[in-house]
């Protein structure tokens, strides 16, 4: 479940950065077309990976419930952090990305 | 045409949300608390010791106890301890005096390791929140009907809310705090959209549950996962042999658990019921615990001959329609959730509660703006304000009072469990009176501050009145008790923050207002000249 949570959080952050307004708030400046596309792709890929992470360790029923739970909570955490601690929100996304291989390794 | 439709939906969302918002807030909050029903029970009856689980040993102890105390009962029901509910529960039903009558039930809770009968303070525990969230403390069946209607309205409010909210994807990550009315709306939208899967699941599943529950609801409330026991009572001839009126010793039941597990490929037993113990035709029904699968199986059980221990019947795979209903039931209840997932359930439940609360605040805030200049609020807005305060801050305070009553009421008090509930409703009633008497913002601040103090002081009160304080529970690793205390502390801190925010917002509003008020007489004078 930890791996799914990390991937979800990173994925949502990427999708958030793909939106010009949030990109401007968080990193400054509007993203280029290519960068936007890359972020959208990465975001959806990470969300897809998190579904795989949630389902592969358990059966489909429990895995799907876990996935929806981390999906909702990670998005909620991101949206709450963004206005108050934007740097922390970004840093957490970085940590999630870096930490996910470790979590994947620990899972096996 | 399209705008007209959206406006109609906005109207529907506004008024359905307002009329049922107060009730839905209470249903969502108590329902969320019910996710920790067993943990709350444990805190409210801390005399039940948490022991290492051993189903076979506990069942043997229960069998000994019942053979000594209820040898002539017509039925025994044994609830085995699990990781969340440490007590060994035994119930028995006396043989009916006359045919057609129901024999009386007696319930006891035993120590799962020694089999000794436990002396407990009487309390409904977390069961109160669970019952309240669908029965609303009303006589059967009115509470169930009202909460079903509320669930229907919730569903309508969700759908109309999605339609009203134009920019779901554009505003997906948007929350702009410190902007007054704008922030409340952002928060309402974010809580609604981000947690939408939960909202839809919980609302739709409650309708599915009530589909079969509006009439036979008492089955689930009084038998828990052991629905089979109810059907056995209604149709005793269907799978339980008739009493032979011939004495025969009941075989030791512990080995039956292993046989039942073989049938379930690893599933654990939750309940064991024995029909006609001591009779030659005694039967033992071992029911599966619902805590290892999402899809709830209404009555997965294995029936044994009580004397020989042979398998008489095993309930077949449930049909698809039942499995779908069972899936929604399982998702709603979350019996299968481990500690982490249970916390996530709790968090998204709170998010749902907060979504309803923010909606109520927005309704009033929008309309109050029009009357901000005059300072006089029309009656209907004042009514909404009072109901907002009492239904939110007042309810939270009443929950704290319920816990306080559990620790302060004398153990020997007659009808103690009822008095805990009375304390809850008296506190809630007083919050209405208080909200009527005090101006809006002051009432909010005072009630939030009081609730904060009550919650934050609960761990201290617990330490003063019981030997199960944080110093002990943390070291022993009793996470249910320690977690309860710590959660109360965190709730206290959160409410303090909320009260402080409310107070500060009021202070800045006053500061802004003063210059305008002093400026007005001047302009008037100028106009007069």
UniProtKB/TrEMBL annotation, chain A:
Transmembrane feature ranges = 38-55, 62-82, 88-107
InterPro entries attached here? DUF3325
Q: Which UniProt keywords apply?
A: Membrane, Transmembrane, Transmembrane helix
Stated name of the protein: DUF3325 domain-containing protein
Which organism's genome codes for this protein? Pseudomonas koreensis
